[in-house]
Design goal:
Blueprint lengths: L2 E6 L9 E5 L2 E6 L5 H23 L24 H4 L13 E9 L4 E10 L10 E9 L4 E6 L8 H11 L6 E5 L17 H15 L9 H10 L4 E6 L6 E6 L7 E2 L5 H19 L4 E6 L7 H18 L1 E6 L3 H12 L8 E6 L14 E4 L18 H18 L1
Parallel strand pairs: 3-13, 3-14, 8-12, 12-13
Antiparallel strand pairs: 1-2, 1-4, 4-5, 5-6, 6-7, 9-10, 10-11, 14-15
Helix pairs in contact: 4-6, 5-6, 5-7, 7-8
């Protein structure tokens, strides 16, 4: 997936908004509370909105855009709270009722070209502050020429060609299929009751359903997962089975030659978190979709630096082998550095990686003349075309210099 995605008036992003280039592997990094999570969560919210329209189309229901709204009831969107809570708050009174806007590119089969879609969401005259309804919609060609525009209460059916164009672009996924895995996915348990409603149990249930239904002749379930269990050096293979009383699922990590292995919970939180990442990718492969995008929130959490580096190799392998694409929110220097070396080794192309540094939303807390979003390219030799923000890749060097100065001071004294 390659796309140009824009957000305005959403959480930390103000009316001026930000634009990012999304590529098959998109890395979001930067300081805390800068907006990395906001980018990911806006994509999840938008994808959920578009899926409602697609379901109506599949069920032969008429597409009336202004009846659709952002859904804050389904997970993980329920964590956002309500429309009023996600609208950017500013001291400027003239921005209070401005719509939240998302814009992205999609291919129009009707026009046989890519177009730019902009969606505006707002409450209705302030009468329903918890819900965000679609109040504005426009389609432009890539050069910016307006092809279609609608505002609230427009009669879409009055323009048959416009209605066809609307249905054409709005019934396509911006990100094909998008899944989201948070950093708090895992609960370490010896037995996972399948009736639980936590994020990890839902993922586990989806996996068991997909594995049992898999009829692919070109893929054996767990091939990817077991391959990378070996690459990480934590075992030979994983087994996931129902317990004898069918109360839930038992997960075991087996060494080479072992029949039963040990419970995953015996290996600690970090390995269990890694298993959740592997399981989500394995599920995407089993689902067999043409293109799948997975958004991970800090997949490196609780992992040793070497494992953080291997994560980069795993993501690249999943993309190149199975066309699974990733949006990764991370603070890991090791993951970024390994991607640089993989480019230098010509294992992946620079155009397949987007490295985005997100600065603080407050202009006074970032370097002068630096925008909130900085898109950094990685050259063919692995070097960054621009430095990342202070305190990321340079932090280890700065600490080493501080240590040397302290040692020198101690010697001279």
């Amino acid at each position: 997936m390659k796309n140009i995605y824009s957000i305005r008036n959403f959480r930390v992003f103000d009316q001026e908004g930000v634009t990012i280039n999304i590529r098959p592997i998109t890395i979001l990094t930067g300081c805390n509370s800068s907006g990395k999570s906001s980018i990911v969560k806006s994509l999840v919210l938008l994808n959920d909105f578009l899926s409602n329209i697609q379901r109506d189309k599949q069920n032969n229901q008429p597409i009336r855009l202004h009846k659709y709204q952002l859904d804050f009831t389904r997970k993980p969107n329920n964590l956002l709270g309500s429309f009023q809570k996600i609208r950017h708050r500013s001291h400027k009174s003239d921005t209070e009722n401005q719509p939240i806007s998302f814009a992205y590119n999609v291919h129009s089969h009707l026009l046989a070209e890519d177009v730019r879609v902009t969606l505006d969401f707002n409450d209705r005259d302030g009468s329903d502050p918890n819900n965000g309804y679609l109040t504005g919609f426009s389609i432009q060609d890539i050069k910016g020429k307006l092809l279609y525009s609608s505002r609230e209460n427009d009669e879409m059916t009055s323009d048959p060609h416009g209605q066809q164009l609307v249905e054409d672009v709005m019934t396509q996924d911006m990100t094909d299929s998008l899944a989201y895995v948070s950093s708090t996915t895992v609960n370490v348990k010896r037995l996972y009751p399948l009736e639980s409603d936590d994020e990890f149990t839902r993922l586990l249930h989806q996996y068991l359903t997909a594995a049992n239904a898999c009829r692919r002749t070109d893929y054996t379930p767990n091939t990817f997962m077991n391959l990378w269990v070996r690459h990480f050096g934590i075992g030979d293979h994983i087994t996931i089975e129902s317990d004898p009383d069918r109360l839930g699922a038992v997960i075991r990590l087996c060494m080479e030659g072992e029949r039963h292995g040990a419970l995953l919970s015996d290996f600690g939180y970090g390995i269990t978190q890694l298993f959740a990442v592997l399981l989500r990718i394995e599920l995407a492969i089993l689902e067999g979709k043409t293109t799948m995008t997975i958004a991970f929130e800090e997949p490196e959490i609780h992992l040793h630096p070497r494992f953080q580096s291997i994560l980069a190799e795993m993501f690249v392998d999943a993309y190149k082998t199975y066309n699974i694409q990733f949006i990764i929110e991370t603070h890991s220097e090791y993951l970024v550095r390994r991607l640089q070396t993989l480019i230098a080794q010509e294992i992946i192309m620079p155009d397949d990686i987007a490295l985005i540094y997100v600065y603080d939303a407050d202009p006074e807390k970032r370097p002068m003349y630096v925008p909130q979003i900085k898109q950094i390219e990685i050259s063919t030799d692995g070097r960054l075309t621009e430095p990342l923000g202070s305190g990321f890749l340079d932090e280890a060097n700065n600490l080493s210099l501080d240590l040397l100065r302290s040692m020198k001071t101690g010697i001279t004294e």
